Amino acid sequence: MIADKIKLAEELVIELLMKLGITPKALRVVEEEAILKVEIDLALNESGILVGFHGEVLSSFQLILSLILYQKTNEWQPLLVDVNQYRQQREATLKRMALAAAQKVKFSNQPMVLPQLSALERRFIHTVLTDNPDVVTQSEGEGWTRRLTVKPKIKKVKANNEVIDSASDSTSAQPAK
Question: Rounded to whole angstroms, how far apart are CA atoms 46 and 107?
Answer without folding.
Answer: 42
